[in-house]
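Thread: Modeling a multi-component assembly for a lab meeting

Hi all, long-time lurker, first post. My supervisor asked me to bring a structural picture of a complex we are working on to next week's group meeting, and I have zero experience with this. I have the sequence lines for every component (367 residues in total). Could someone generate the structure of the whole assembly? Inputs are pasted exactly as I received them:
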Amino acid sequence: MLAVLCPGQGSQRPGQLAPWLEAPGAADLLAAWSEVARLDLVRAGTTASADEIRATEVTQPLLAATALLAARGIQADVLTGHSVGGWAAAAIAGVISDEDCVRLVAARGRAVAECCDGTTGMSAVLGGAPDVVLAAIESAGLTAANVNGGGQVVAAGDLDRLAALEIPGARVRSVPVAGAFHTTAMGPAVEALAGAATGVAAADPTTTLVSDADGTVVTDGPAHLRALVDGTARPVRFDLVWQRLADLGVDTIVELAPAGVLAGLAKRVLPGVRIVKAESPADLAAI
Amino acid sequence: MTDEEIRTALAEIVQEVSGVEASRVQMDAAFAADLDLDSLTMVEVVVAAEERFDVRIPDDDAGDLVTVADAVAYVQNVSA
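Re: Modeling a multi-component assembly
Sure thing. I ran the full set together rather than chain by chain. Output:
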């Protein structure tokens, strides 16, 4: 049972697209996707600097395009993605077209960037008992925006509240992101994205697709598209995704480029599972 | 501790946190560009390093630790 995982923001790396450019048809696809993304994806994924691709409106469509290219030729039994990676997973599972995926993720990146006004942010919470950590985040008026499993929780919200956050037995450190992703601070982005998604055709998945909102298996394509839109302002529960992958009997995990983050978590959370990082077409042979 | 002892301990931390093989954690390796550590994983490495070496690494300083050599020098300096 082979699960393909699409990474989210924070995974991006300069030159991440370069190994995939020579693949058959890649140039034409990237040209079409760059047009709908209103961004030169080839430049962003080859020569652009780490600072340039850290900008949310660049990061997100670049991640989507890289995942979609890397996924070609892999026969997945299960698909899932972390945060913005969930969009590529949905496209690979046939819920939306690749082109709609890149277009909407680019719109998502721009809309999310507009919600970042310098007053909100995110902090990693490391260690501590899970119940204590989640309760403390909530009582501080913050959101547990990413519950990633493996003892990794990210709190998000007002910067002053984050600075004051103290949790017994846990360490709190700020994470360099532009705003409080996956919280109600992203409400305006949801509205903008819903507008962009209006009229987009959505089909039921043709491959088992696991939602990062709650770890459930997606059955209804149109409902999942709405969930992806809403997910911009709702927490990621990747802990529940890991649980679902274990329950489904997944024994091999392929993290699509730029791989590393989810593969690292998988090693901790699902010991014994075979892990492949699809960083270049040559890696696909190992699958 | 010698630089090599700090590097070895740091390599164990990186392997434990990220799954990246300790043998790749050499002095000239960059945490992000060479070892593929994302910002969140880097935070975990910093916190584990603080505990292991009994030092404080403020966020502002942590952001300047680009390579393994940077981190080794930092630990060496603050514990001297």
